[in-house]
Amino acid sequence: MTSRRTKSWVRKFSFWQVVIYLILIVVFGIAFYPFFYTLFLAVMPYSEFVKRRVHLLPAGFTLYYFGEVLKNPQLARAFGNSVLRTVLGTALSVVATAMTGYALSRRGLKFRRFLNLLFIVPMWIYGGLIPYYLTIRAVGLLQTFWVMIIPGLVGSFTMFMARAYFMDYPQEVIEAAVVDGAGQLSIFWRIVWPTSQPLIATLALLIGTGHWNDFFWPSILVPPEWQPATVMLNRIVASRTVMVGLGLGVRIIPQSFVSAVAAVLIIPVLLVYPFLQRYVVKGIMIGSLKG
Description:
CATH architecture of the largest domain: Orthogonal Bundle
Number of strands: 2
CATH superfamily of the largest domain: MetI-like
Order of helices and strands: HHHHHHHHHHHHHEEH
Radius of gyration: 25 Å
Number of helices: 14
Helix content: 55-70%
Strand order of the largest sheet: 1-2
Number of domains: 2
Shape: globular
Low-confidence stretches: 243-250, 282-291
Structural class: mainly alpha
CATH class of the largest domain: Mainly Alpha
Strand content: under 5%
CATH topology of the largest domain: MetI-like fold
Oligomer: single chain
């Protein structure tokens, strides 16, 4: 009986399939281990951390560093800012990006090539930090909440992704709606948008992750009361020091504390991603059209 099962397994998987699966497992392990290392280091007591130079597996357990991070009274407000920015920014950006991509995918649009060129240029040429800052100040967005949302409302990469999706959209459906007298705006909201869940979910994943992880510009352009959790956690790390050594006054930050700070940002993404991944799969099934 065992030999039959072994033979059936051999017939099911060829030698090269087994090799490919082994390579994928190794690649997955290499890609996943940094996340695993950060999470277990965040709960490792400092006494266990200093015992060995290399830590491949967790040793000990403590939530002390998470407590040190979360007891900051301003962190709750910063996380609220991050959630508000991510939800509002993602929703507005997904709608604006999908509408822009749909408009630029229509062959009858006037100045279509020129408008596409305007989105291509920023992908290759960047104006620089100072011109960007001066532009933000000139339009009145400096030191406001909306500076984290409006300037990046439609990105070139995500727009061309949406454009490519809508160019492959079944034109027979759109032409039938045009014959029935529907306008382009009505076609987009009543036909194209409800059947584009795969694109919507993909855009939400990319744009939402960007909003959640953004750090540089919010630390410069946003007032303290609206700064997200990434900026606040960086300040906690910068201000949290420990004196070690033989009275030499050497300043270091425990690696476990830094890992706890990183885990606070990673864990929400890990909790949300499986639900979004299932939504992507569901969207593919709902949005599929049979010719």
